[in-house]
Design goal:
The chain contains nine helices and seven strands. By secondary structure, it is an alpha/beta fold. The longest helix has 16 residues.
Length: about 240
């Protein structure tokens, strides 16, 4: 309630401005209606891992990988495909430190997820960064999105329970098999017995390696259901 009042006051003082084109924002989003309409929806997509599927794929279809073997996570919700202009909005947060983009991405994701929630999770956790990378960047982009989701849904979040305990190589030049090997055992979850259903938040899911390894860490610690909430999904990389 207090947060909503503060947001209305802030909007009066600093009206939202589109981060992509500079036009007036829509509602309390720093995104104008025209740019919002251009965001590439991730449909159709695999119902388990949200991998973009061909246009003629039926609703509720599984991708080949999920058909062959169920992943460690229970499902990924990724409402958009990682393409223009969404990639630019994510870059505003991730590489230009425009934290307003984190709030806007969180609000967009909350709106998209609200119609897909079968059961509310007990806890929201951002994908963690290794402490060295966090010190270098100064913030965790997944944490910025998670904080907004927490406020919107009234679900607690924590940045100190799921940790990245091992520094890993940069992922962008690795294929899926190499990414899984690179991340194996890199995450640790300080279990909470009252949290059996957890949502892990990220900005982009690429190969699903991070989703897989964070879910393994959570389930090994006793979590029964792990969902991955991400803004965007890229096509599968082999």
């Amino acid at each position: 309630m207090v947060y909503n009042w503060l947001r209305r006051f802030e909007t009066l003082l600093l009206p939202p401005t589109c981060l992509l084109c500079g036009a007036p924002g829509g509602g309390d989003l720093d995104l104008c209606p025209a740019c919002l309409a251009r965001l590439p929806e991730n449909q159709p997509a695999c119902r388990r891992c949200a991998l973009p599927l061909p246009p003629d794929a039926p609703d509720g279809a599984l991708c080949g990988a999920c058909s062959r073997r169920a992943p460690a996570f229970d499902r990924i919700i990724a409402p958009w495909r990682y393409d223009k202009p969404l990639d630019e909005l994510i870059a505003c947060l991730k590489f230009r430190q425009q934290l307003a983009a984190g709030r806007t991405l969180g609000l967009l994701l909350a709106e998209a997820i609200s119609s897909k929630l079968e059961q509310r999770p007990d806890l929201i956790l951002p994908v963690p960064q290794h402490p060295a990378k966090l010190r270098a960047r100064g913030f965790n982009q997944a944490g910025e999105i998670a904080a907004t989701l927490s406020r919107r849904f009234g679900i607690p979040w924590s940045s100190g329970l799921l940790l990245k305990t091992r520094k890993t190589d940069a992922q962008h030049h690795l294929n899926r098999r190499q990414r899984l090997k690179n991340l194996r055992g890199a995450f640790h979850y300080h279990a909470r017995e009252d949290c059996r259903h957890v949502a892990v938040v990220d900005d982009v899911v690429t190969t699903g390696a991070t989703a897989t390894e964070t879910a393994r860490a959570l389930k090994q610690a006793g979590v029964s259901r792990v969902e991955i909430w991400a803004v965007a999904r890229t096509p599968q990389h082999e």
